[in-house]
Amino acid sequence: MHVAHDLVALLGPDGVRSSAELTRLVDRHTVTSWVANRRLLRPYPGVLVLPAHAQEWRTRALAAVVGTRGALSHASALTVWRRAPRAGTIHVSIPASRRAVRGSGLVVHRVQVPAVDRLGDLPVTPLPRALVDTWGHAHSGAGGPGAVELARTAVIDSLREGQVRVPELRRAIEGRGALPGRADLRRLVDLIEQGCESELEVWGVLHVLAGPGMPAFVQQHRVALASGAARLDAAVPHLKVAVELDGAAFHGSAADRERDTRRDVALAAAGWVVLRFSYLRLTREPDACRREIMAVCRARAALFG
């Protein structure tokens, strides 16, 4: 028990320390015996970890940083930027001139002079670069199940919430030569810049609101109401037609539905027609949704003469 207590004190709350640091505090033979008795694990050369912490994401990330002298990158950097869950393989980027360390659950990317930010005690690639790297890795087929969805969600949310700006992300895209999925990423960034704020809105613009016969829509159109300003997912202002794309995550609760109903009544009082489409209808019946929108727009155009 005394030795275990000493180990916790020596390796700190995350249970990670370099071998060089530890042997400055404890003689080398003692450290060797701890490793032999599996009181300490050596996941990478020169790195020691407490077994009780070995599977924790932060401990694995710190061990990878210590072992490679690199910066967390790709989806691991997104985790630190709070754009990805604490799970999966640890990604680290190092200068191309250095030799890559190998280890279970670790991917080392050798790149040209990677830029590095620091969040707390973790070195990470800047968010625009992390988004682009994650996108390229996912679209190369190496990212595994769900990698493309994670990359898309991270791009949409980071831009929507202002954590990264469109020009910054575009520069990061152009700075990556031969980026897998580059055209799709450019297209997604363009759609977000036009006003798309969710994956459902991207789907709606591409598969419902565009095409022959459809009017020109203004995304995130603001309307002044007596109760305050309303922002419409898509609108044809001169016809006062609004199209709302309802994702379950944002419109699933009773409170959300009540809020939407009150707003729709206020819009109707101001002369607007609100067409509200669910996620299921948009994704399963895009052609039917398109026909209904066009029919209403034709009727409104005839009404306004």
Describe this structure in words.
The chain has 305 residues and is an alpha+beta fold. It has 3 domains: 2-54; 58-194, no CATH class; 201-304, Endonuclease, Chain A, CATH 3.40.960.10. 49% of the residues lie in helices and 18% in strands. It has 14 helices and 11 strands. It has helices at 2-11, 19-25, 28-36, 57-68, 74-80, 127-139, 147-160, 166-174, 182-194, 199-207, 248-251, 254-269, 279-284, 286-304, and strands spanning 16-18, 47-49, 71-72, 90-95, 106-111, 117-119, 122-124, 218-225, 228-236, 241-246, 273-278. The strands form 4 sheets. Strands 8-9-10-11 form a 4-stranded mixed beta sheet, with helices on both faces. Helix 6 (127-139) packs antiparallel against helix 7 (147-160), helix 6 packs across helix 8 (166-174) and helix 8 packs antiparallel against helix 9 (182-194). The longest helix has 19 residues, at 286-304. The chain is elongated, with a radius of gyration of 26 Å. The termini are far apart. Residues 1-5 have low confidence and may be disordered.
